[in-house]
């Protein structure tokens, strides 16, 4: 049996980083605030599909190419990549614009998706609606040839192309490109982790958890519950959109079939639930565990094929279904259960307790 | 005679109605949002396929086995997943995610079964229809007649059960407040088992009707589920009658209205057919979240009566 080589681990790191951004942002929506968002694939898709639509066209007009962009998309993207290869500053600017536009497109979708909350619908209805809207969103992209050519898809301009200039006999161009992707997703992931940790240590985290546990009581205390729902959705969608954009850049190609609900909604839900709700450490553990397992199944697919009486693809789905059900039944709080929130640190509480006891006597 | 397009629309409405009734029952009686409802339909398709291909049983006799197998699957889902979750006090959202897990698990098992059939028996177990096993009677397709009669029988039977029997009254009590019903001596566990038998059996039977007119495979439920939930939301997730009415509105719009619009604005709109269901669902949630059930029917009736009175007065005055 073949042992996974460095390429496997590089791919694994990229996948883990992209999915960590998604699961951490999903945990903010579901774990902290209790929004059952079953349309998360739509958020990643918005970021990814914008990546197939915007940067190519932007460069096409900027460089003054003639003709129809989609008709000559391969030729045009090749020429764009040749320009990007010689121009690191332009490449970095394009990378930033692409990720930002992906995040903004997803944030707008997040706002639209949270509109039913403003109408005061029950969260169960929201879950059903978002699942259905996500299916509709994918159908529109798939059957809309003018956008990203639906099932044919489009290549994405490569803003990491200039890095391949620095490749050597030791480091291949592919690895240089992967380093660029790891660095980019590392920056977004660091921002996400910083934001999530800041939220988890702030009073906002207690408000969000209180909304999750008893929405009416929080509203009775004067908090704008629906406004908070919308803000959480917008921020969470924006982060997921950025991850979707990075994934599209990594793949170098976007097809209308990408960003399906099993991969981009149900797997992240399983990762968050297994790790533990409202707990970033648990989410990180859950994501690393599942992504590693999934990549190993894909890596050893050829070896599993003769052993299993069915395609190993279904083993992945079986695993997902079983983990979701068994975790919810036997370990509902996940591997790292949520800790009780205290407004003061443990030390301060102990100090006050001691003072009270002294006062009593 | 009824046109084939209208027959197709009614068959689709019947399929969606049976699934929507199942989802509404699961939610209104046992407080479980069942995301696997459409996949129970796919189970029915494969049970029927197996009986027809390997036991030589006809399409409609196989309905009996689909009904029983679907019902048993429903009971297993309740006993193995829903009951333990409720015992530990899981929230509705958690149960919802568990049924999503069940949906994924069932789709995977159906795919494995389809792989097994293809590899072992060399039969085409994906992308098939059972139309070859259907019959025609006085210009009407068999599936149109049987599915309509079956839906009517189900509605009458459920109506009688809910209004005339002690089980129906107990089910209503359980739907209102399970703990209170238990205090009154109602065996809620038994009632849940009965409900989940129906919850599994109805969509499994509906799946067979679906596979007569449309191409079926293990993942077909992913496309049907939108129409089912749109029907449930339009119906208000409250009574079986509203679920059936909501399903008919959705199916007629999807199967009849969209092709009609396509003749006016072009065939490009056809792939977006099911988005109509989605649009109706979103509009329902935004405009009247309680669906057809929550509409002020008395006030509507009163207004309509006044409207027709005014019209008749106007005509009388004109004469």
How would you sum up this structure, described in words?
- The complex is a heterodimer of chains A (361) and B (319).
- Chain A has a two-stranded antiparallel sheet.
- Chain A has helices at 6-32, 40-62, 73-86, 88-113, 115-118, 123-142, 145-148, 173-200, 203-213, 215-220, 225-251, 261-275, 280-299, 301-307, 312-330, 346-360; strands at 154-155, 253-254.
- Chain A is globular, with a radius of gyration of 23 Å.
- Chain A contains 16 helices and two strands.
- Helix content of chain A is 74%, strand content 1%.
- The mean pLDDT of chain A is 89.
- Chain B has 319 residues and is an all-alpha fold.
- At the A-B interface, α6, α12 and α15 of A face α3, α4, α9 and α11 of B.
Given the C-alpha coordinates, what overall shape of chain B results? globular
| Largest inter-chain contact set | A-B, 46 and 45 residues
Q: Figure out the total of helices of chain A.
A: 16
Major beta sheet of chain B, specifics?
Answer: 2 strands, antiparallel
Q: Which class best fits the helix and strand makeup of chain A?
A: mainly alpha
Helix content of chain B: over 70%
> What is the tally of beta strands of chain A?
2
Sheet with the most strands: spatial strand order of chain A: 1-2
Question: C-alpha Rg of chain B, in Å?
Answer: 21 Å
- Could you report the average pLDDT of chain B, rounded to the nearest whole number? 91
What's the quaternary structure here? heterodimer
Q: What is the end-to-end distance of chain B? A: 39 Å
Give the fraction of residues assigned to helices of chain A.
over 70%
Spans of at least 5 consecutive residues with low confidence of chain B: none
Shape of chain A: globular
- Secondary structure: number of strands of chain B: 2
Rounded radius of gyration of chain A (Å): 23 Å
Head-to-tail CA distance between termini of chain A:
73 Å
Show the helix and strand layout.
The complex is a heterodimer of chains A (361) and B (319).
Chain A: H1 6-32, H2 40-62, H3 73-86, H4 88-113, H5 115-118, H6 123-142, H7 145-148, E1 154-155, H8 173-200, H9 203-213, H10 215-220, H11 225-251, E2 253-254, H12 261-275, H13 280-299, H14 301-307, H15 312-330, H16 346-360
Antiparallel strand pairs in A: 1-2
Chain B: H1 4-30, H2 37-55, H3 62-87, H4 92-121, E1 136-137, E2 140-141, H5 142-164, H6 166-176, H7 178-183, H8 188-213, H9 221-235, H10 240-265, H11 275-287, H12 297-318
Antiparallel strand pairs in B: 1-2
Helix pairs in contact in B: 1-5, 1-6, 1-8, 1-9, 1-10, 2-3, 2-4, 2-8, 2-9, 3-4, 3-8, 5-6, 9-10, 9-11, 10-11
């Amino acid at each position: 049996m073949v042992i996974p080589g460095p390429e496997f681990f590089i791919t694994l790191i990229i996948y883990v980083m992209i999915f960590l951004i998604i699961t951490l942002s999903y945990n903010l929506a579901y774990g902290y605030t209790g929004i059952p968002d079953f349309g998360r694939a739509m958020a990643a898709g918005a970021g990814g599909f914008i990546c197939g639509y915007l940067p190519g066209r932007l460069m096409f007009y900027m460089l003054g190419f003639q003709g129809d962009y989609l008709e000559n998309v391969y030729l045009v993207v090749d020429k764009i990549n040749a320009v990007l290869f010689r121009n690191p500053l332009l490449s970095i600017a394009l990378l930033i614009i692409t990720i930002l536009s992906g995040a903004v497109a997803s944030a707008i979708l997040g706002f639209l998706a949270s509109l039913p909350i403003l109408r005061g619908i029950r969260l169960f209805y929201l879950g059903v609606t978002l699942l259905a809207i996500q299916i509709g969103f994918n159908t529109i992209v798939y059957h809309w040839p003018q956008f990203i050519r639906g099932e044919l898809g489009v290549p994405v301009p490569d803003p990491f192309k200039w890095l391949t200039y620095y490749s050597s006999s030791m480091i291949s161009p592919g690895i240089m490109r992967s380093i660029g992707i790891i660095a980019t997703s590392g920056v977004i992931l660091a921002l996400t982790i910083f934001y999530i940790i800041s939220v988890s240590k702030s009073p906002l985290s207690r408000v969000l958890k209180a909304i999750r546990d008893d929405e009416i009581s929080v509203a009775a205390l004067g908090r704008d519950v629906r406004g908070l729902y919308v803000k959480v959705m917008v921020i969470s969608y924006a982060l997921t959109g950025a991850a979707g954009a990075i994934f599209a850049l990594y793949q170098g190609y976007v097809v209308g079939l990408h960003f399906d609900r099993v991969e981009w909604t149900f797997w992240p839900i399983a990762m968050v639930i297994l790790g533990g709700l409202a707990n970033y450490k648990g989410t990180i553990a859950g994501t690393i565990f599942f992504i590693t397992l999934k990549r190993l199944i894909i890596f050893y697919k050829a070896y599993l094929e003769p052993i299993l009486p069915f395609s190993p693809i279904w083993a992945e789905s079986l695993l997902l279904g079983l983990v979701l059900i068994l975790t919810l039944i036997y370990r509902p709080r996940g591997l790292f259960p949520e800790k009780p929130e205290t407004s003061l640190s443990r030390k301060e509480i102990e100090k006050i307790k001691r003072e009270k006891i002294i006062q009593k006597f | 005679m009824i046109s084939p397009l209208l027959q197709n629309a009614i068959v689709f409405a019947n399929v969606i109605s049976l699934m929507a009734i199942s989802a509404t029952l699961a939610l209104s009686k046992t407080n479980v949002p069942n995301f696997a409802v459409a996949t129970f339909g796919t189970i029915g398709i494969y049970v029927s396929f197996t009986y027809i291909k390997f036991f030589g049983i006809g399409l409609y006799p196989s309905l009996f086995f689909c009904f029983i197998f679907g019902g048993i699957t429903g009971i297993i889902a309740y006993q193995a997943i829903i009951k333990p979750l409720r015992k530990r006090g899981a929230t509705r959202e958690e149960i919802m995610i568990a049924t999503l897990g069940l949906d994924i698990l069932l789709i995977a098992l159906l795919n494995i079964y389809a792989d097994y059939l293809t590899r072992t028996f060399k039969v085409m177990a994906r992308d098939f229809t059972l139309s070859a096993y259907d019959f025609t009677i006085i210009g009407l397709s068999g599936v149109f007649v049987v599915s309509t009669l079956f839906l009517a029988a189900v509605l009458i039977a459920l109506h009688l059960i809910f209004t005339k029997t002690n089980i129906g009254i107990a089910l209503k009590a359980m739907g209102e407040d399970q703990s209170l019903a238990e205090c009154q001596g109602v065996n809620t566990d038994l009632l849940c088992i009965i409900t989940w038998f129906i919850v599994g059996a109805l969509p499994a039977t509906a799946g067979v009707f679906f596979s007569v007119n449309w191409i079926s495979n293990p993942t077909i439920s992913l496309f049907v589920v939108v129409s089912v939930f749109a029907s449930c939301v339009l119906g208000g997730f409250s009574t079986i009658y509203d679920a059936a009415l909501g399903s008919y509105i959705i199916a007629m719009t999807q199967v009849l209205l969209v092709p009609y619009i396509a003749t006016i604005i072009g065939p490009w709109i056809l792939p977006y057919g099911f988005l109509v269901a989605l649009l109706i669902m979103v509009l329902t949630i935004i405009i009247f979240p309680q669906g057809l059930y929550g509409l002020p029917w008395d006030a509507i009736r009163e207004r309509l009566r006044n409207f027709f009175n005014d019209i008749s007065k106007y005509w009388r005055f004109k004469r």
